[in-house]
Amino acid sequence: MNSTTDRAEIESVLHHLAKAHTDHDADAIVESYAPDAVIYDLAPPLGRRGMDRDNIAAWLAGWEGPIRVDSRDVKFTIDGNLAFVSALNRMRGRQRGADQDMWYRTTLCLLKASGRWLIVCDHASVPFYMDGSYRAAVDLQP
After folding, report:
1. What one-character-per-residue DSSP string does 38-51 give?
2. Could you tell me where the beta strands, DSSP code E, fall in 54-137?
3. Distance between CA atoms of 10 and 2, rounded to whole angstroms?
4. Nearest CA-CA partner of 28 in 83, 69, 64
5. Residue 7: strand, helix, or coil
6. Which stretches within 1-142 are classed as H helix?
7. At a CB cut-off of 8 Å and minimum separation 6, what does 132 contact?
8. Residue 30, pLDDT score
9. Cis peptide before 35 (omega within 30 of 0)
10. Cβ atoms < 10 Å from Cβ of 69
């Protein structure tokens, strides 16, 4: 495979993941990840292994309507069966009666195994204010 084809396949995984959030499809989210993927996402704990379908479904149930996840400044690095993707993501929707709109940083590592790209590491974060308050800086925009 050439890197153009691999990039298109990885972009397909990312589009599939964004659509799964829009559709509240926990199964589709989970299937984008390797079973033992390292997850450092926005919610506690600090890290875990694998995507738990029931936890994802419970989180999705707290949203009214679609969850829109859009990416900006997406960068791809592909070398053989390993790829890294970094981006600024914007997540918008209505959660528990309140409109949500926030930007966060994400870095994904994908591994191609048996002809299929899967996320093996997902690291999402927001910066925090270093003024002593340690508040998450969810009001930042690119």
Report:
1. EEE-SSSSS-EES-
2. 63-79, 82-95, 98-113, 116-125
3. 12
4. 69
5. helix
6. 3-23, 26-31, 53-61
7. none
8. 98
9. no
10. 19
